Amino acid sequence: MTVKLLMLVIFFAIMLGVGFYSRRHATNVNDFVLGGRGVGPWLTAFAYGTSYFSAVVFVGYAGQFGWKYGIAATWAGLGNAFTVFLNTISAFGNIMSYIRLFAVGMASLAIAQSFNNMALGFKGPLVVVGILIMLVGHGLNIVMGLLSVVVHGVRLNLLEFSGQLGMEWTGTAYAPFKKLDKIRK
Across the chain, which distance is largest between two alpha carbons, in Å? Predict the structure, then answer.
């Protein structure tokens, strides 16, 4: 028991030392929270991920089991670390899904710019044709944008994330070129 308490005191002493050392370098809130904006987005994302997973897995779960069951709980911590590794890979898949949604939005922007460029090519009395191109083109683009929000949102929530909830989909397999044994009348 005294060894555990001594380790806890040493941990807090190290954390206080890091805090006092960092206090000299962080002069305002931006320096403290954002590292003086000298840290890139990838490092920020990985720092968040590792801090969160480390706190949950190693301090939360493994610490709880270590306190209850002793050194034998190391196996539970290693098992949790493997699970966290797999969940991290799954999180990257989710991030890629949202990047796909971002790409759909960027495609909508490119379509809008194309219609603008087509319409700006008409001069003089043909400006009416340019206005018509802008109205029809942007109208179609808005409709496609609204559809993409619904379609991709449903796809993300129902198909990709449902697997993480343990849901299984049932139905018949889609086989468009399958030879039918019986002729339907």
Answer: 91
Q: Give me 176's structure tokens.
A: 């468009």
Instruction: Check if the beta carbon of residue 62 is closer than 8 Å to that of residue 79.
Output: no
Residue pair 148/106 in contact (Cβ under 8 Å)? The answer is: no
Closest residue by Cα to residue 49 from 94, 77, 96, 91: 91
For residue 97, which amino acid is it? S
In terms of Cα–Cα distance, which of 68, 77, 56, 58 is closest to 4?
A: 68
Contacts of 94 (CB under 8 A, 6+ apart): 160, 161
What band does 139 get if pLDDT is binned at 50, 70 and 90?
very high
Q: What is this structure's pTM?
A: 0.43
Contact between 94 and 160 under an 8 Å Cβ cutoff? The reply is yes
Query: What count of residues does the chain have?
Result: 185
* Structure token pair of residue 146: 């609204």
Quickly tell me which residue has 């190290």 as its tokens: 14
Two tokens at 101?
């949604």
